């Protein structure tokens, strides 16, 4: 199962990163390929270190959630290094980084995450350095997850606040292809950020979905008519591509996964994170 997941996630990310740039009708395949190779990537990974990764609360006999996350991260780093190796040396100016929000109280995790902020330029892009990136990301992210699980102190993940106050400064750079990969089960909850505005909210939990009456066959009509969703952040993120990976809905509601996707799709669209093809710009 694990090897299958890694193959699927690697294939997905390679397709997303290399093949899904929007093309005009006048572009031919050769021009598109050259453009993709010469792009400068600015890849950010936002990790939800909430109790979704807890082995006690969410055990999975087939494959633990943290192992699935590590598979996705491995795929991202491999796509990144493959992109670097496809470029001419003088063209290389690419970045990859990993974030949490809020930062864990564990100082070891914060220290390791700083080591995962990689900036590769023509001045440091040695063969040895490029070949070390995948191992560095695999080993250090495994240590982060193992440490978080061992601590067993999950303070939640404030994804909404990250978009509201940090994503513009931390994940978007001019003249880069900015890609944010979010590893989450799709729910949002942080004790310090619980905002409601009518049927809009800064959080989403199985309890809220049930409370809102979105656990019936006509949930979609109710969702649209009564304007449910996440509160829109006042930010123009049209220069950002987002991949949401790891959606893991509660089994108590057969419509839960579709509802989670509806919340995210509406929210990201409102922030001008545009996508012509959902499989290219928004992967669940």
Automatic annotation (TrEMBL):
Record-linked PROSITE patterns: PROKAR_LIPOPROTEIN (PS51257)
Source organism, top-level taxon: Bacteria
Full protein name: VWFA domain-containing protein
Species for this entry: Flavobacterium ginsenosidimutans
